[in-house]
Design a protein that fits this description.
Distance between the termini: 28 Å
Number of helices: 14
CATH architecture of the largest domain: 3-Layer(aba) Sandwich
CATH superfamily of the largest domain: HUPs
Bound molecules: adenosine-5'-triphosphate, magnesium ion
CATH topology of the largest domain: Rossmann fold
Number of strands: 15
Structural class: alpha/beta
Number of domains: 3
Order of helices and strands: HEEHEEHEHEEEEEHEHEHHEHEHHHHHE
Helix content: 40-55%
Radius of gyration: 26 Å
Strand order of the largest sheet: 14-13-10-11-12-15
């Protein structure tokens, strides 16, 4: 899939990502790489079921399949094929065999290997028919350096490119449905992720913080290690509530979030901010509102959910298993002081007038002083 000079670099990142995903899985794993295929071997005691599930979550992999390892000897290949033929065929009524030889010194050529293996399948399953054009199942026989493999059709992998090959992003992670999905989408395009959660103690509680932590932990299954920052916006929120026009409250708060997130991103070498915003979803996500928050960002703000409907975001949240956590009913810091009639057509001058009443830099500085983080994954 990957071409050109970067290929070696991507492959080495991918291998390290797979290794990391399998770190806590029982058994020892060994790796070799040929013909765009990363082959992971498990020791006899390895928990291959768990390993398979973990590998399915690693970005940069197009297809995953489980192989049966054989000696590089057709007698052994035939025997293993006969033993596993029912598993390999499942409910299929037609099949074909394909052979790949990365070891070009192997004495048999691909068509000969296919003919022998096709014969073995038919001997053991006389009910089967060969269909070379549109078979229900393809059985692949691969002859590699050390071993031969037999495998059926693979499953779709997580796709994308390996995490870490596309820089680092600072995800603004609320307890909602959208931001974990946004983090997942950006990580799938190769960004390593750190996250920042803005809390408002005592208005938001420990349960809300735990929920965000659980969401971040779920993301680590895909994204690898995540540093989750928590920053208190209590002083900011109280000051806004007592000083500024209520209808602008949400936007003013979001500008503080973006200011703080930009500073943290810069400090920890992230190249962009990521949010779960989707155009027109709520008052603070109209085009004008997005412009008002973007104006204080010092880094690009990426919004991978921008063109998705809520239903589409929910489908993704379910796929990555964050949905059930996201809908737990804890207050987040935006709901605590939500205005009754938020402004959907904010006027920049009015925003600036409101902010002129505040010590913006001081508020940001004191908020950032509360920054603390935990390492997850
Ligand atoms: P989500 O479901 O992700 O919370 P939302 O639809 O509730 O999104 P908003 O609450 O307007 O929308 O938030 C928009 C985006 O701003 C979020 O997706 C998230 O990236 C960021 N954000 C909002 N609240 C917080 C918070 N407390 N901490 C960190 N980021 C936040
Ligand atoms: Mg929210």
């Amino acid at each position: 899939m990957l071409k050109g000079l970067n290929r070696g670099y991507f492959n080495s990142i991918l291998e390290s990502r797979v290794k990391r995903a399998l770190k806590k899985v029982q058994g020892d794993f060994y790796y070799d790489y040929a013909q765009s295929t990363l082959c992971v071997w498990g020791s006899d005691d390895a928990d291959m079921d768990t390993a398979y599930e973990k590998v399915k979550k690693v970005f940069g992999i197009a297809t995953v399949c489980r192989g049966i390892a054989c000696e590089k000897d057709m007698e052994d290949v035939k025997q293993k094929l006969a033993e596993n033929v029912d598993d390999l065929l499942g409910n299929a009524k037609t099949f074909k065999c394909e052979a790949k030889r990365s070891d070009k010194k192997f004495p048999l050529k691909s068509p000969e290997i296919c003919a022998i293996c096709g014969g073995t399948v038919l001997e053991n399953r006389p009910d089967m028919r060969v269909d070379v054009i549109d078979p229900d199942q393809v059985i692949t026989i691969e002859i590699r350096d050390r071993k031969a493999f037999i495998h059926g059709r693979g499953e779709k992998g997580a796709g994308g490119v390996p995490v870490g090959s596309g820089g680092r992003a600072m995800l603004m992670l609320s307890g909602g449905i959208d931001s974990p999905v946004a983090g997942h989408m950006i990580a799938r395009r190769g960004a390593a992720i750190d996250a920042v959660y803005f809390e408002t103690p005592p208005y938001t509680g420990e349960a809300a913080a735990m929920k965000v932590r659980t969401l971040a932990e779920k993301l680590t299954e895909y994204c690898g290690e995540i540093y989750l920052h928590s920053v208190s916006l209590t002083e900011v929120q109280e000051t806004l509530a007592s000083t500024c026009k209520e209808k602008l409250f949400t936007l003013l708060l979001r500008r503080f979030m973006v200011r703080c997130a930009s500073k943290i991103a810069e400090k920890y070498n992230a190249g962009c901010l990521v949010t779960g915003e989707s155009l027109s979803q709520v008052a603070s996500q109209t085009m004008l509102s997005l412009a008002v928050t973007d104006a204080v960002a010092t880094l690009p703000v990426l919004r991978p959910c921008i063109g998705l409907d809520k239903e589409e975001i929910v489908v993704r949240a379910r796929e990555i298993d964050t949905f059930e956590t996201s809908i737990l009913p804890y207050e987040d810091c935006c709901t605590v002081f939500t205005p009754k009639h938020p402004d959907t057509r904010p006027d920049m001058e009015e925003i600036l007038e409101e902010e002129a009443k505040l010590d913006v830099d001081g508020l940001v500085e004191r908020a950032l002083a509360t920054d603390h983080f935990i390492r997850l994954g």
